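Submission sheet (multi-component)
Chains listed below:
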Amino acid sequence: SQTIHQWPATLVQPVGSPLSLECTVEGTSNPNLYWYRQAAGRGLQLLFYSVGIGQISSEVPQNLSASRPQDRQFILSSKKLLLSDSGFYLCAWRTPGGNEKLFFGSGTQLSVL
Amino acid sequence: KQEVTQIPAALSVPEGENLVLNCSFTDSAIYNLQWFRQDPGKGLTSLLLIQSSQREQTSGRLNASLDKSSGRSTLYIAASQPGDSATYLCAVLGGSYIPTFGRGTSLIVHP
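Outcome: structure written.
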């Protein structure tokens, strides 16, 4: 069966520090991968999505970047965190095709102080 | 650009009531619509997926319907329980293969 792992669960970082959040999927190949951010009182904002290794699409201009070094690994990074980067970050995946479910990881709560 | 709206934004009901949560979308050219549940501080759990060719899906006390032509979906929760308290989100998948989410309905079921 397929599973998705996301870590860490909680992270507190000072302003200006780097960030690396990792997401891995097991039990499937060539998944579509997504990074979402959920800020307090706001909806889910799509940050990046990837349809294959090295293929990254950015949905909004921001202080973050994403990489997909392996088929089932998706990494969210920042060189220098801002206060506005605080939020709940969620990784998600789905099998390519129009009729497949979207599955989410357990999320990372990031607080930038 | 697809826009998804969920009404109501918040709902507080006594245990045992039957509930209807609404989700509307602006572009009817969709592949599917998925309902999720999110508990505080947790990831999203998939509840039901309705394909564009389907009219409804059922799982236990949950029933989701889809009217693609009018751009609407409803999630029906029968005999609500305190354990149903959570935020419920709908997501629409269109031709871009990018899921678009509503902002959710926050549900509280009190004993």
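Remark: Chain B touches chain A through 22 residues (CB under 8 Å).
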